[in-house]
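Handoff note, outgoing to incoming analyst
You'll be picking up this chain. Sequence as last confirmed:
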Amino acid sequence: MADQNVPPRRPRDDRGWDGRQHHTPDGYGDHTSSAPYGYDTPHPYQGGYSAQTDPREQYADGYAHAGQPAPGPRGPQWVGPEGLGRPAPARSAGAGLPTLDDDDEPGRKVGRRKAMVALGGTAAVVAGGAALAMTSQFRDLFGDEAAGDATGATVTDGTAARPSGQQPSTVRTYTEQNESYMGSRAGEALKKNAPSGGQTFSGPAAAAAATKVTVKTVLAKDPILHLARRTTFGVTPQVVADIKSQGIDAWIRSQLAPEKIAPTKAELKIAELPTQSLTVQQLRTQRDQLNERGAQPDREVVDATIARQIWSKRQLFEVMVDFWNDFLHVAADFDGGEVYRTSFDQDVVRKHALGSYPEMLVAANKHPALLIYLNQKDSRKDAINENLARENLELYSVGVDGGYKEPDVRQAAMLQTGRGVDFEGKYVFKADDHYVGKVKILGFTHANNSSDPKKAEAAIDKYITYIALHPSTAKYVAQSLATRFVSDTPPKSLVDRLAKTYTTNNGMIKPVLMALFSSSEFWAAVGQKVRRPMEYLAATYRTLGVSPEASAKDDNGDNKRTPYARGLRQIQDKMRELGQYPMGQPTPDGYPDVYVAWTSAGTMVNGWNEAGELIAGYRTSFTYTAPEKLVAKPPATAGAYVDALAQRLIHQKLTAREKNLILGVAGVSATTKVDATFNGAITAVARAILASPQHHLR
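Most recent structure output, in case you need it:
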């Protein structure tokens, strides 16, 4: 990543935003803190990245976040109906269930916590080894115009080696971090069970029919369930029914044409988030009115994304939006995100998510969000900032091992000067700030001999398109897509074929996805991906059939926001607490996408507790199916009831061991007679099923 620091990420709260477009102390307070507005000391990010910040703090997530305080612990924390830190609602005696951190109840034959941990511990076999059990976290649970030739010795400032005085990056990038995680003992266990080699068939259905699943997994080796898990944010009965009725090929084709899929009621309700329909200029001019309504654009774009992940029928599209939000990452929480992140979501990511990646990268490099996020707006020919130029190569195209060197970064930074943001918040090209002179970058050569805006911008666009179509970029995109959809250790055979498809189709994404879904590697990889915290929570909402309508119990205690808006914010707060939410990674590389990066026992238990809250209907901003009604006709014996409830929630049977553990949670045997409430234990039983490895896998 570029130089020493991450981009500006201000502390937050719900008390409004100031609409500034530049990096200035803006007076936000952290949303989990009661600290007053403002910074006590000068913000470390003013004017771009600092090259001199050392020593660097190494965080548990693998990144060095210089200049930032260490994050607080991610222990379980109550998120009540009114948001983070609010008191829990009163519950009747004996209702609900204790958190898993409570002591076991006296006299219980099988302690609830021990049973749940034992059940969740079987996630160690999700990819065929004791990966989770191996982790310590789980064990612990128990100037002058410059012109000339940039390829020569002429520089604009600083030294010949570093024209801006900045230092090269030393932190791990997305690819390096994934590889580092997978090089651990737990990662090696996963690699041993990953499928290797394969071929491409005439279509997805043909590949599914011809592929035999040989890996060890607790998941049912059902191609329809496998497709639904990988291409959605969680299996629902409706998704399964749609795939069965349309057929695998037709369903995938329909998902690749999201514009033809009607919006759901929940998507239409996004209109209740007032900032999501406003332009950048409207957000700037209506700042005071929006503050009065408690509207925060950079948080509402996250709310809207969560809504679509849970309720949209355009599920593959939303999965790809999330993919690009990690690959071409611009955090929502940056100083400028309140004005520009919604537009970046709509005009860059969503516009091109299933289209052309070169066009997406060109559009991103002209968008104020990226220009501010990586300080390009501050870069001019006599004071060059390398951040965006570096990330364009290192993260957004060829990758850290893609063949570029420091002179390539320097020359790219010189070529990209002139792009900025005007006082009205619009993209502008400033010809007077543009470096004029020959450049050579990773095999790309251009005379760049004109400061005419059209010609200068055309030169930059040509370069951006060049690196977006570079063979190293093709491999990087292919590797990332295969990691997202296939396994944490995707076979080289598949990556090579996807990279070739990317190149042949000039960076168009749909052909690459069709090649991926038509591969035997995809269909052979059942059980090879684990849901990250955000994905686990979204899948829980989806499988429980939560409705976006407010429940009768909702007291509408916030007259500034509708129940729907408040409910989405509660989900976002919980995702923040779990450590992952849309557009949430502060660094430009996005969230890691391998299982070993997320093996936090505390996060896992916190997710289970949240599942219990949802089953019990304590989040009153939405409507829930009563747990005793999840199964239409509950069987009369405990064992049969568990079987039916598992089929309803995870769409397959449990193993005999898992079933016995869940019966232990309720303190009954398989032959015990039970009523629809499971003799009062239905919420605990349903939560235990959602703690199973089958629900953690995708």
